[in-house]
Here is the input.
Amino acid sequence: NAGVTQTPKFQVLKTGQSMTLQCAQDMNHEYMSWYRQDPGMGLRLIHYSVGAGITDQGEVPNGYNVSRSTTEDFPLRLLSAAPSQTSVYFCASSKTGGSTDTQYFGPGTRLTVL
Amino acid sequence: GQQVMQIPQYQHVQEGEDFTTYCNSSTTLSNIQWYKQRPGGHPVFLIQLVKSGEVKKQKRLTFQFGEAKKNSSLHITATQTTDVGTYFCAGSANFNKFYFGSGTKLNVKP
Here is the structure.
């Protein structure tokens, strides 16, 4: 098993550009989520999905869109990048999303918006 | 909204000294998880606490969950350089949503 994979590892964008951060898992997990990590602020939940076709907002959803067309993939879209979105983005998955499930994190995408 | 506060933000210790990080929630939690993130890495699950007053040990690491299920702590006895990293707690009060503390960055001087 590759676990949770994310691409790209690094990305630099200009303000106003759009891009998609990719996340995939091969553990047949129903629950997938996106977090952003900023210095001194821990990880904040952006969006999550409890299964294919179902998504919901987390703590900080503004400026981001998600979709879940398959169990394996959960891409995060930035429609018009802003400097405030400079951060490290982590995708995570767990078996069902239940509060007792272990979350498995991907290696992260380091995004800089100029 | 739910918040999980974690202190201290940084801790510098000499190898062999003990280390403790604390988490406090504004609301009662159903459970709390602890993660470790090595520099440049991603969070890795350490342990989960579910029951009020629960105490769990992993070798030199001791995890506690408060009686009111609003606070938790991680204690490392006799730190080693391999303990370097940032330790996060993540609390859940609602199904599907975890709220992470801001983390405690541990530096161990050999």
Notes: Chain B has no helices and eleven strands. The mean pLDDT of chain B is 93.
